[in-house]
Amino acid sequence: MRYSTRNPALKNNARNLKRNMTLAEQRLWYSLRDKRLNGMKFRRQQTIGPYIVDFVCMEHKLIVELDGGQHAEQAVYDSKRTEFLNNQGYCVLRFWNNEVLQQTAAVLAKIVEMCGSRVDRVKQRLSENQ
């Protein structure tokens, strides 16, 4: 089941997050914006259901989340959130902020790899249904 929201408070919160990105978010956004990563279009601080995700590629149904130190304390919330997003058909990739800052190329390679593997799984399902 697809979930949508038109919650104005959530939209305002997403706008604020766009204006106040962390250093790790800025670094990753530089590589993701304007289809710079393999021609894939990413959005940042996008609302999906009752949540705001850091980055999403709608074409590949891939969400990229960056976690700082506070995420260690909210593991239960993150788990529920990820379960909801998975049920909406999204794959959620999580990276620590320091990974993005220190190993940007490896993070980008993993994102490309996940997009490719999602395309392969869809093609496989289509061929099985024929």
From TrEMBL:
Coiled coil: none annotated. Residues 10-115 form the DUF559 domain. It comes from the Bacteria. CDD domains: Endonuclease_DUF559 (cd01038). It holds the Pfam family DUF559. Keywords: Endonuclease, Hydrolase, Nuclease. One of its GO terms (molecular function) is endonuclease activity. This is Endonuclease domain-containing protein. It comes from Neisseria lisongii.
